[in-house]
Structures are given as C-alpha cells and as structure tokens.
Amino acid sequence: MKTFDITVIGAGPIGSLCAILLAQLGLKVAIIDRAPKKVLENPTRDGRGIALTYGSKTVLEKLNIWQKIPISEAEDIKEIRVSDGDSPLFLHFDGAEAGDHPLGFIVESHLVRKFIFKHLVKQKNITVFDNTTIANFDVLPAHVEIDLGQEKLKSALLVAADGRYSFAREKMGIEYIDHDYKQMAMVCSVTHDKPHFGVAHERFLTPGPLAFLPMTGNKSSIVWTESPANAADIMQLSNESFSALMQKRFGSHLGSITLDGGRWSYPLKMVHARTYTKQRFALVGDSAHAVHPIAGQGLNLGLRGVCTLVEEIEKAQKIGLDIGSLTPLEAYESRQKTAAISMIVATHGLNALFANDTLPVKVVRDLGLAAVNEMPGLKNWFMKQAMGISTKFSGTLPKMMTK
Ligand SMILES: Cc1cc2nc3c(=O)[nH]c(=O)nc-3n(C[C@H](O)[C@H](O)[C@H](O)COP(=O)(O)OP(=O)(O)OC[C@H]3O[C@@H](n4cnc5c(N)ncnc54)[C@H](O)[C@@H]3O)c2cc1C
Questions:
Q1: What residues does ligand 1 touch, defined as CB less than 6 Å away?
Q2: Domain-located, residue 315
Q3: Per-residue pLDDT tens for 59-110?
Q4: Is 216 helix (H, G, I), strand (E, B) or coil?
Q5: Which of 228, 277, 384, 386 sits 20 to 30 Å CA-CA off 340?
Q6: Nearest to 64, CA basis, from 26, 107, 17
C-alpha cells in the first residue's frame, strides 16, 4: 500500500490545481485520472472558450502557469455589452470604470487544461496515476484506502474533483440537487470581418443566450444556447447555413461571420451537492457545484473552492491539526457554499428572467437593463462579480485570488 498525505480523484483543471496548491504546502499528493497522460498533457479542442476572471488569472500567475500560456492565445475582455433580443436598451460594462485591469480573459478550454497539467507533472511531490479508473475506496476513522485495482493507496484525506457526474459523491451517499435546464449550449469559434475591440456580447434571446467572447485577432468564441430540439436541428446544418443562422440571431455588429473549425454541444445542467465534506473527504469543482455557463463562472468558482480548501488545510497544518479532520473541511464548506449558492441563484435567475418572453416581463427587464446602466454603484458591483473579486454576498476571498 502506497502512502500519501492527500489523494485527489480527477486531473481536470480543478483537481490538478488542487493537487498543485497542496503540493506547495509540502504535502505528498497522489492524483488519479481515467484518461491517459498523453491526453491530459495534450487535450483535444472541446470548443469552449473559458472566461477566466481577474481573480483566477491572479492564481495562475502566482503559480507561474499564466506566463506559459502564449500571449497569442489569451484575449482581454475590456467591456461587456448585454442586450435583450431586438430591444434598443442595453447594459454596458466598461472595465476601465472599475479599475486598471480587464474584466476577464478568454483562453480556449483545452489550453487552460494543457498548461495546468504540464505544470502539475513538474511537481516532485505529486504522483500521477493516469489511465486509472478508481475501483473503490473506504473512508476509515484514521485514514482513507483507495483501491486502484492493481494497487492500493492510503491517505489522510480524499479530495474528489471527478466532475458533475461524480462517482465519489455517489459512493459517499451524498445527495445532490440536479436541475436540467432543457437547453443545449452549442460552442465554436468564428472569424468576423470587423474587430471586436475586446467587447464581449451577451445577447439574450428567448431560447437562450448567445454570447460572443473576444479571442485574439478578429475571432470570437461562441456559446449559443437553444432548446435541445432546436440545437439538434441546428447542429445538422452545413457550416454555411450554421454561420448564416448565427449571423441572423446576432446581427451585423461584427460584420460577416464565418465558422472557424468544428462545433460542439453540451447539455446544460445544474448540480449542487447537499454537503461538500465528510470526515476525510471533500468534493471540489463541478462534483460539488456545476452551474449554468451563462456567466462563464463554473471553473472560476471551482478554483475559488480549491484555494479556500487549501487555505483551511494550511491553517490546520500550522497548528498541528489532522488535515483530514472536520475542522478545516467544514470551514472550507461553509465559505465555498456561500460563494456557490450566490452564483447558482444569479445564473439561475438570469436564465429564467431572460427565457420569459411575456410582454410585461420583457418591458420590465429592458427598463431594468437601462436603469442599471445608469447606476454606477450597482454597475461597479456587477463588474467586480465578473472579475471574481467581489466579496459581497459571496464571502471572504481566498488570499491566493488577491494581489
Ligand atoms: C458550454 C460550457 C461553457 C463553459 N464556459 C465556462 C467559462 O467561460 N468560464 C468558466 O469558469 N467555466 C466555464 N464552464 C464550466 C467549466 O468547464 C467547468 O466548471 C470545469 O471544466 C470543471 O472542472 P472540473 O475539474 O471540476 O471537472 P472536469 O473538467 O469534468 O474534470 C473531471 C476529471 O475527472 C476525471 N474522472 C471522472 N471520473 C473519474 C473516475 N471515476 N476515476 C478517475 N478519473 C475520473 C475525468 O477524466 C476528468 O479529467 C463552461 C461549461 C460549459 C459546459
């Protein structure tokens, strides 16, 4: 039986970052993923452009991961423009009004994963068990035993970052709320004639939002949400017809739009675990809370969670407490739940508000957009949320996320 301080299941972006942060505390970490190393080191494109907040970028910078992402692959979000269908009223956020840095950054998801994992394999006190699907584990009073089939691991704490359909959550008997939005997000990147000037567009349409997120050059990353039936039909279209329909939905702000490479689609579901921790066990990332991508915050929220968990483990370590005991784990859960619930409420509410096309609701929300646009205090609060540095309603930020 091999012994580690902590075992992490799942070497996605959240599990990997968790392992890296734990290793920085001098802990001996094992990380397990069912995918082979060559796939984790070089993930294929999945069509998603990840909107990273300023807070998440700060963490990646402190870990010296951000500096490895080629400048040609990361674009600043300088402004966000929110509009409601064809209404002339809109809401405009200008990052320059909130501070001296952008509102966020767009990097393609496979690159975020690649550079995080590349950094992980360089850490001396992390052992990767790739190509390995965890067969079973037992949480015992003094340690956890993890059965990998061929071998067994033993550690003081098991952290599950195995995604929204978490096996570990199921095995621990942790109940969860699961909401099917009955929406599909179609994602791709496009090239357009006109420059975007770093402006992200969120256009709310009745079937769901259509987001254009700025990438380097005259390119944007698209998240186009439709009902499953519409999405199935749209995904069947030829590239030309797909681009033409998107153009019709979005309008002509960016000139003519052409699909750039493939397209992918994802069913949208919210998952929220009733509890994130038990003695010697913690859920992090999508296994604890998977949110609607309407605000581009799932990965950012997961990163906030692992920074919080590691901060609490460090406190426990300093005073000689057992790192698998409930004291650090419950402190993590209480802080992260506040952040996750406020994000779930916000994303849920936004989606429901804009999906309702009855006339009174539409009039009120359009007036609401125009009114918020004239309220500097409220606009500033929204911008700080987008940057991932607001503490109002979401609790204390972990230190790793602040400069
Ligand atoms: C359309 C779309 C757009 C999005 N856009 C954004 C955005 O702009 N900004 C943002 O912050 N977030 C965004 N997100 C959310 C983001 O993609 C997720 O929050 C993030 O990928 C979660 O990471 P994770 O590491 O928790 O889980 P995952 O990425 O799901 O990783 C889980 C890992 O666990 C492994 N695994 C699973 N089960 C086992 C097992 N039994 N044994 C071993 N290994 C296992 C898997 O192989 C995988 O590597 C978006 C999501 C969608 C669907």
A1: 9-15, 32-35, 48, 50-51, 133-134, 161-163, 167, 185, 187, 223, 266, 285-286, 293, 296-300, 302
A2: yes
A3: 999 999 999 999 899 999 999 888 877 766 667 888 787 777 898 999 999 9
A4: coil
A5: 228
A6: 17
Verdict on whether the full-model pTM lies above 0.90: yes
Dist. CA 163 → ligand 1 center (Å) = 5
- DSSP 3-state assignment of 215? strand
Q: Which residue is closest in CA terms to ligand 1's atom 51?
A: 293
DSSP code, position 398: P
Q: What are the residues whose beta carbons fall under 8 Å from the beta carbon of 70, sequence distance 6 or more?
A: none
Does residue 340 fall inside a structural domain? yes
Nearest in space to 250 (alpha carbons), one of 211, 217, 215, 219: 211
Ligand 1 centroid to 161 CA: how many Å?
9
Q: Model confidence over 224-268: pLDDT tens digits?
A: 999 999 999 999 999 999 999 999 999 898 999 999 989 999 999
Task: Identify whether 222 is part of a domain.
Answer: no
Question: In Å, how far are 10, 61, 155, 269, 341 from 168, measured between CA atoms?
Answer: 10, 31, 15, 19, 21
- The total number of structural domains in the chain stands at 1
DSSP string of 178-199, one letter each residue: EEEEEEEEEEEEEEESS--TTE
Ligand 1 atom with the shortest distance to the CA of 49: 8
Tell whether 221 is covered by a domain: no
- Full residue range of the structural domain in which residue 47 is found: 2-178+270-401
| CATH number of the domain enclosing 308 | 3.50.50.60
